[in-house]
Amino acid sequence: METPILPSPAAATIPPATDSNPAAAEQPKVDYLNLPCPIPYEEIHREALMSLKPELFEGMRFDFTKGLNQKFSVSHSVMMGHTEIPSQSSEVIKIPTADYEFGANFIDPKLMLFGRVLTDGRLNARLKCDLSDNLTLKANAQLTNEPHMSHGTFNFDCKGSDYRTQFQLGNGGLLGASYIQSLTPHLSLGGEVFWAGQHRKSGIGYTARYNTDKMVATGKVASTGMVALSYVQKVSEKVSLASDFMYNYMSRDVTASFGYDYILRQCRLRGKIDSGGVVSALLEERFSMGLNFLLSAEIDHKKKDHKFGFGLTVGE
Amino acid sequence: MASKVSLKAGKGKVVKKSAAADEDEGRAAVAAKFVKEWSTWAMKKAKVITHYGFIPMVIIIGMNSDPKPSLSQLLSPV
Lengths: 316, 78
Prior knowledge:
The complex is a heterodimer. Chain A is an all-beta fold.
């Protein structure tokens, strides 16, 4: 054994030697045969997404969730806002719309069903079923009454002790597969391939994720020309800061954003500023058990557009 | 005249061979078309069934889970 074993009490958190040695029984620091299961491929940048892409909305929103028993709940939502119509001129055309949405959720350890239907007939449905300990079936569909505007995908997830694979089948001839593997307790690498039958396009992508207790750094490269990097630092229990950089080398498009996430006792405040001149914030304040108040604001300085929203969420 | 007759006979043989090959290809093509049409029909029916039946199915599964909630709980706004 060339590398000496350091007798410090923090031995477990010292980063491992650069050449990972599979004969790990001799190194009490890191047990390479017992690595943790990695984060699923599509959630690899979930900390950055949670901080930098909150659900901003415009107008009024009222959500009422009623639990009928531990597993089953029904929700009613009223949303009054604007939909934007893309227009030739630089002005944005907004049309006021109002929607009522009915939802039903069934959550079981083995089966999860989630359905939302709007007044214009659009259905948003999700299903997650654990076929066995390691195999999961997930399905996702957005169905509309208009022809050719519906989407659906099926995913088969297989989980091993330190890897995950996923096979995806979607409408329009979409086929995809992804694989992610933990290399050390902090580092995981993954890759994916996909084939879109309708557009006759295929692509391949790679991701890497490095996380410790205090920070998460992820990187993603795809053959569609997209490079995405993100970094989230947990400054304290209540505060975390996130930054994100996205570059498309085919279309020469660059976006960088920086955001913060304050999780306080009574409220959660998330805000971000973008390189495209967009500043936004979302406040979720808890008035009492089961009653949440939402305030959302977004100002686009380049397009001279602003969106403000307020809402109330009743129920868990 | 003899040459004409022999020419006709020659053509007849070629036509017969290509007819047999054509028949095989035709059967495969018909089978493939049948499968494609049938799967498109099945997908369309599945989409309509999911669109109308998903939420009622979730409600039925939920109302039959333990502890069983009552219909008045489902319909009342409180």
